[in-house]
Amino acid sequence: MSSLMHKKYFLVVTDDYSRFTWVFFLASKDETSEILKNFIKEIENLVDKKVKIFRSDNGTEFKNKVMDDFYREKGIKREYSVARTPQQNGVAERRNKTLIEAARTMLADFKLHTIFWAEAVSTACYVHNRVLVVKPHNKTPYKFFRGFEPALSFMRPFGCLVTILNTLDKLGKFDSKSDEGFFVGYSLSSKDFKVYNTRTRRVEENLHIGFLENKPMIEGNGPKWLFDIDSLTQSMNYVPIDAGTITNESEGIQGELNAGTSSEKEEISQDCIVMPIWKDASYFDSPFKDVGNGEPKSAVDDQKQVEDGPDNENDEKDKSDDDSSPKEVNTAG
């Protein structure tokens, strides 16, 4: 199993200018102080700049003697929001909510169990840094922080099914070389993908992956409320509406669209989708054929001629008499 599956908390650190975000996962809140100290040292070395102000809430994981001594040693100014006033730390609070909502949607969309919440949060943070645009400069946090545009061609849908090349076990000549699993994120220390191997039941990093993006995901063993659409509609008091019965008559609009197919009335009971009425009736007209006098002739007239038959001399006579005068064409209203 992945080490992230045993975590209970996640720590979000956001750069106030670029909005670039880092996520750290903790088994207990006591790990916060050590993680922050190591992160500040690493980021100062990475960008060759100093952290000047650190803003957080009044949690004991941020406000304690260990962190106070560290801030005093580094010369970092501390700012804390007032108790029960989260809007004073709005940047961090909004980013927390964004990541949680994105992770919940990703898990529900691909029917994954909630034990993969940490991988979903990490992937959401990874993608947001490279996709979201920061106003008013219209740049992504990645470009703000790193100075160049990120590559996006390698990104794949979270949770899609994959085939994994087995590079860990010693295989015989006729042993299967691939395992099945699903994609759960990106590696932060290499160019590998993070995938869950259903055979070994572990999250591993591998570059030799085949993505099956068009293959539907099978429902897992997660909570029923996460996948049951019927329960959702029942909780909303949703009741399906019967559209009633539609009569298909040869003299009605349906008869015009299917002219000549049947002269009997058919009743079809089905659900309907209400569509807007077209103002241009020519869209529903039947195909036309040109006749000798240049007037268009509808498919309805052709069918009537076939039904009358060529042996009816009176009809042939009437037809020859009518050819000299303009003919009216009835189209669908």
UniProtKB/TrEMBL annotation:
Pfam families: rve (PF00665), SH3_retrovirus (PF25597). It comes from the Eukaryota. Residues 298-307, 316-326 have a biased composition (Basic and acidic residues). Residues 286-333 are annotated as: Disordered. It comes from Tanacetum coccineum. Residues 1-149 form the Integrase catalytic domain. InterPro entries: Integrase_cat-core (IPR001584), Retrotran_Ty1/copia-like (IPR039537), RNaseH-like_sf (IPR012337), RNaseH_sf (IPR036397), SH3_retrovirus (IPR057670). This is Ribonuclease H-like domain-containing protein.
